[in-house]
Design brief:
Number of domains: 1
Strand order of the largest sheet: 5-4-1-6-11-8-12-10-9
Radius of gyration: 20 Å
Keywords: Nucleotidyltransferase, Transferase
Catalytic activity: alpha-D-glucose 1-phosphate + UTP + H(+) = UDP-alpha-D-glucose + diphosphate
Organism: Pseudoclavibacter chungangensis
InterPro entries: GalU_uridylyltTrfase_bac/arc, NTP_transferase_dom, Nucleotide-diphossugar_trans
Distance between the termini: 62 Å
Strand content: 15-25%
Shape: globular
Number of helices: 11
Order of helices and strands: EEEHEHHHEHHEEHEEEEHHEEHH
CATH architecture: Alpha-Beta Complex
Protein name: UTP--glucose-1-phosphate uridylyltransferase
CATH superfamily: Spore Coat Polysaccharide Biosynthesis Protein SpsA, Chain A
Amino acid sequence: MHARPRKAVIPAAGLGTRFLPATKAMPKEMLPVVDRPAIQYVVEEAAAAGLRDVLMITGRNKTTLENHFDRVAELETMLEDREQHEKLALVREATELADLHYLRQGAPLGLGHAVLRAKKHVGAEAFAVLLGDDLIVDDGVLLRRMLDVHERTGSSVVALGEVPRERVNSYGVVAYEPGDEPDLVRVTRLVEKPDPADAPSNLVILGRYVLRPEVFDVLERTGPGRGGEIQLTDALSELAASSDAGGVIGVVHSGRRFDTGNRLDYAKAVIELALANEELGPALRAWLPGFVAGLEAGD
């Protein structure tokens, strides 16, 4: 058995240009999904999987991320004085999720560079990486499965999902061989955003990783790849080919997942999670069929 990772890294330095003008003054990670910002779902997922030491890699104009997870004494006092205990609990929940640390990326050199910035904080141990663009609202089930696989095998682990082949050029795509369990594959190669005609499969990385510390050494010698950025997929390809580094295993996820970097998927996430919300769901479910019927009737 190998040591179970204790730390999570959340890269959150992107500019969010696909959501302009909404992200002109607000980080994309703070866009609301029903009743909380998208980034809180990610931190909740890490905490639910037992990863309560969380390093967020940020950039300029991202101070609202830190503010959201910080205490606001005057707000808490006001809610306490007004005996609004449910709201007070929700405000405190974000603060108490995990031990959060923050580090600036410094330059927009890609996901691989953002992960490399975590080297001093992580040290010589395996760690998880969670991207905020992918919301996987499952109480940490997928991430715990990935941690279990790493603990048993010592390999780096990536979460994978199927997408239509015409959409693979938006993702890191894997070539693979069957694994020793139905939801596992052995990754042999990774390609960043390939042309659909050249893609080795339609299994793509979903933005969840459990990485051995050897990835830092690889990233330090990895030059800019696609888009002039240091690509994490390039480093993972090298690890996949190295038995000394434990190789790379993929966990195929068939559950719900929202690509909130895509505006349509973001809208779907808001609708689906609102429908699942105990307070909003019943009224929304009652209203929605009539609204859709009106659209179909051309009203």
